[in-house]
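Data availability (excerpt). The following record was deposited with the supplementary files.
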Amino acid sequence: MALSKTALDTDVSVHSTFASRYVRASLPRFRMPENSIPKEAAYQIINDELMLDGNPRLNLASFVTTWMEPECDKLIMASVNKNYVDMDEYPVTTELQNRCVNMIAHLFNAPLGESETAVGVGTVGSSEAIMLAGLAFKRKWQNRRKAEGKPSDQPNIVTGANVQVCWEKFARYFEVELKEVKLREGYYVMDPEKAVEMMSKLLNDLLTEKNRETGWDTPIHVDAASGGFIAPFLYPDLEWDFRLPLVKSINVSGHKYGLVYAGIGWVIWRSKEDLPEELIFHINYLGADQPTFTLNFSKGSSQVIAQYYQLIRLGYEGYKNVMENCRDNMLVLKEGLELTGRFDIISKDSGVPLVAFSLKNNSTHNEFEVSDMLRRFGWIVPAYTMPPDAQHITVLRVVIREDFSRTLAERLVNDIQKVMHELENLPCKVCARILISGDGDKEQHGAVVVKKTALETQREITTIWRKFVMEKKKMNGVC
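Predicted structure:
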């Protein structure tokens, strides 16, 4: 959740043109009004402001689902007033969550017996799921260290530098040292050999050997937030899940390629032994024991019900079709960008359906400028620098969701070409601010100006343009 802040230099009141039919007085912007207003006015005021939000379907920065079938929308609205935590009041909703956990556990090849129940829980997203999985790892490690008579106050966790910020939050909030495996140009995932030295199938095998050599018992958690609902359908032979003995827990976002609106995630443990009992709270309702392990208390039931709808509505066949369509549309976009001759494709064809690309020539205009100008066409395409040690690489990224069709892919390529044509006819806004010497060092006003390398120049241009774009956003508010 973003921390609250107020816009600067704005009117302290909220005004609405059409709501004035119902109420003439303006409303205070940051304080509750003294009097009530008609429901029509409240609706109109809020609706008018929301028009300035971006179009979710054109938000290509996000993995989060932005479209569901009308039948599922009806189920969501019918259950929007149910508090999931009231298990005694809504036992069927609890049962649906348990079914989802077991379906996902089987999808991830959990080693369950014929009548064995999976161990897992629904969360508000992968961030909470990761916190829970991390806490389970930390508590189990502490218990083992205490039993061995060893210090248990300095746990650490190894991740790639490319992980989502929730891992940094977990490490900081729960006092765990975070060791990051840096990236390198051309290799933008965690290097398993480096990961093992600091503490996939290859990582499991290397870590098994390292545990054997050192006597450690280091486990693996798989952050499958985006890929957990992709790999089982597109790459069923890829061993990344509970088929690997060291994988003890997996999180996945139901609101990404689980195809549910924002607000649902899942974490699954390999077995009961991998979730310390002291972390579980037990609720007795309707004569049965209901274990619970969450950070949140109250939360809506709608997303749990929506996830169950998608699992039974689509089945294996349906999910496979959706993922194949996403992959096909990704290739359409990738090939269209390649045909322009202006971009290098950074992403791979396998894995999560997205296209990450960078300009072949960013000496005059860069990726941040392309991103900024695409907003004029309604597209939200983020530009960002790669994590350490590849931060000198800047990319644009388009996430291919179910609602991103071939037609939209073709239209996006056309709009990108329009942007590039416009940029070519504009003077360089950044280079004029940077002194780049010619061949050899030169002397100006008695001082020697050292020639910058191409890499140093690119990094400086990227830094200045990012600052320029952020300042522009602060001034404009909405593009």
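Summary of structural features: The first strand starts at residue 13 and ends at 14.
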